[in-house]
Each structure stands twice: as C-alpha cells, then as structure tokens.
Design a protein that fits this description.
single chain, about 70 residues, mainly alpha, 2 helices, transmembrane helix, transmembrane, protein transmembrane transporter activity, Translocase_SecE/Sec61-g
C-alpha cells in the first residue's frame, strides 16, 4: 500500500501536468461568453415571469367563478 503523502505528491504532479495541457480562453472570449449567458438568463427569466403572471391571473379567475 502506498503512503498517503507519496500518493498525494503523485496526484498533485498529475494534476499540474494536466492543467498545463488546458487551452484557456482569452479574456475577450470569456467576457463575450459571460455577456451571452447573462443575456440568455435574463430573457428566460422574463419569459418565465410572464408565464407565471398569466397562470396566476388564470388561476385567480378560475377560483373566483361562482
């Protein structure tokens, strides 16, 4: 059985080796994609808000029918 400290050093070395292979996105690309994600989230939130309001109005209408 390997010692925990030696095992940790191997794992850390492998992790650093893998991180050196990663192609990191440029700053401009990261900013552009972040803006796209925020915009899509706002659009979906607005859409869900409208649907929720319409369903609440419909439910209130149905519960007030006598």
């Amino acid at each position: 059985m390997a010692k925990p400290i030696q095992n940790s050093k191997v794992v850390a070395g492998d992790l650093i080796g893998e991180l050196k292979k990663v192609t990191w996105p440029s700053r401009e690309n990261t900013i552009r994609l972040t803006i796209i994600v925020i915009a899509i989230s706002l659009i979906i939130g607005f859409y869900i808000g409208i649907i929720d309001s319409l369903l609440a109005i419909g439910l209130e209408y149905l519960t007030n029918i006598k």
